[in-house]
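Quick entry between incubations.
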Amino acid sequence: MKKSDFQLYISGAAKLGVSFGVVSLLSRWVTGNTILSSPETLITYGLIGGIGYSFMGALSIILFGFLAKIIRKQFSEQQTIGDILREKLSPSGYWFMLTIIFITSFHSLFVQAVGAATLIHLIFPIPTFVGMMVFLGFCYIIGGIGGIDRLHQLAGINVTLIFAAVIVIPVYFFIQEGIYPVFDGIKLYHPYLLYIKNQEAILFIFTALLVFVGQVLLDRATWQRIFMIQKEKVRMTFTLTGVVWATIPLALSSLLMIVLFGRGFDNIYSLFFELVDKIQSTVLIILFVLFCFSAISSAISAELHATTSLFIKNAMDLFRPLSNNEKWKYTYWFAGTVCVILLFISSLLAPSPLKLLFFIGNIYAAIISPMLYIIFSKCKLPFIVPFSSFIGAVSGYVFMPITEDLKAIWISFAISSFICLSTLVFHIISKHIRNKL
Amino acid sequence: MLSVEAFSLTIMIASLAPLLGAFTLLFLFLFEKRIDLLEKQKREIALERELQTALYNQLNQEIQPHFFFNTLNSILSLARLDRKTELIRAIETLSKLLKFKYQTNTSFITIDEELTYVKYYLEIQKIRFRDRLYYECSIDPTINQAVTIPFLLQTFVENAFKHSFEKFIGEAFLKITIKKQDQEVYITVWNNTTESRDDQSHERGLGLENITKRLELLFPTGNTSVQLINTDGGTSVTAVFPFVLKTEI
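Done. Structure below.
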């Protein structure tokens, strides 16, 4: 394969082993979301919520590993989630699913970008716009132009920085401060964090599992990695990724304790970045800033790369078959346009509260059953299967004013599952009748 | 409410957990290649052992004197009838057959190579059986370079002759089908003789068992199976194993 071949941009030259597979998946899954949603989880649902959050994230990645093995066994020539959807869905169903994937992709990219903008606003004495331009320029070069090989070259450095920060900073602080002052400070200012018998936390933990599973199932970067990892190592890679990933939000919860003790807070989403004010040592400040940027930039680059690959291979190429050079050209244009849009939106939004950006759990919950049906089915599926995710998500939003947010997510899941199940039963019965005739 | 001890324990676990993650990753980076190599070596040794067993079975079962004498007698008849071109072809084919049989000592070969060997064998059998024998072979051209274990197809075909055509009179019809389906290779050998289950000799059982074992060793993570099916129309044996090109190994 020539170095300029577009296939190399999508999948790279060599198949990944467990170690590189785990690093690649970690650099995708330790994201701005992990950093931004940890404080919210911790403050809303206490320590139990924080711990449950990390376990559920890990569990969903591990569970996806079981599916990934089946997917890899069924399809070996494919490269993206779009390739599989095209085989399993009718044209209308395919385009519908692709639209949902693009909506969730852009949403996820925006969350990361706004996170990065908030960080720049808090740390650097430069206009956010300029900081974001440099940051997104870097992501564009790595994810947009560089392709998967460039992403993997940086993934090792990213993961090293992430682990260095989450190991060194909490240990340094707790040795310096001691556990008692932190405990007393939390007890005084945020006693709800220490409350264990929290019924709502249990509902939250299981809802988080639902949302996580949906998110992983729909994540085009994760799907691409299924086909990059050596076939016999797929499940092991996902299991280990889940286990290793779980340790990071756990460490982030302990980091947040350092920020929170002995003080209140204004903006929950920028809370984590305020750790910079608490850190005295310059080396640790640099390490912390590098950790944040590294986590966010690797996730943005990975998502940018996956979204671009999906757009060029599974959307543009279907309208008009593209030559290799055209694919490269449109890749640069598409990734560049996404970066420019991200730049403007993140500069306008940051550092205002991001509540609205976390408002997509219903879609993820509603997509689980259709995606499972798609993966396990042996034949082409009717439009109603992918469309059930839309019905489920909309129903969840409709019920939101009369019920809690978390319950609305379960309603979304239940409705789309019911539709998929009905379709399956109808399909089985009609097949049975046809066979009898 | 969490006590200070429980809080300390939680913070300790939360702070030290990433160490566990980092060590796991470090261990993988340091030892993954070595573990892979050990596994590969173990599999190769087992494959080698099974191949030796297969070769032993081949020598014991298949180059039986009666096959050899019958072939030589057929060649002799060709010489007596002065059918020189066919005679040369027969001797050449026998020579190639024996050469392949004694020189194959690798754990895997391509389907193309295996098929060439089987065709030599069938050519010789055609001299013996003459118009009684009809055979056809259909292969999906995309899987010519796929990997298989040596003597898989050969064992199936030889079994058909040994347990069917040589035992029963009448037309001998043999069909070889090699196709790819869902990233798996299906090799089927069908013959028109119906055997009762009692007739499945111990010898044949050993041959198929050896093939099953060797397929499992060559494709440890893939789906493999060997099935013998008696139907009204005939007997067929099918081997299923993953589609892997020689260049990928």
